[in-house]
# Entry
Amino acid sequence: MAENDNVRGGFLGGFLIGGILGALAGLMFAPKSGKELRSELKRKGDEVFDEASELYSEAHARAKILLEEAHRRAEELKKEANLQLSEARLKAKEVIGEAKAGVKKVKGAVEVGLETAKKELSKEGRKDEPKA
# Structure
């Protein structure tokens, strides 16, 4: 029976200590009141909004820099393309000029050749004509 009382006393003591510790834990981890919870949610929401605003500002600034760089690079490429196009046009004009000069030379040579051929044919024609 003494053993039985000892077991009951140990159980009762453990139950009381467990109950007290449970009550303390409940108080420490108890949810906040509605007002406190709304206040904390607002604060956390403001923090998140501020962080998002900061990230947006940084992204906007980076995008602006990238766009300005792309615009600058596009202008450089446009200038380079215009320069190369101008050079190609000049080269084409030179080649066309040289081709025209070559055509004139060939035309002149053909005309001289035709004149020479006409003279030769007329000489031969006179030789073939019977003399009267």
In short: The chain is about 90% helix and 0% strand. The radius of gyration is 54 Å. The chain has a mean pLDDT of 83. Residues 35-128 form one domain.
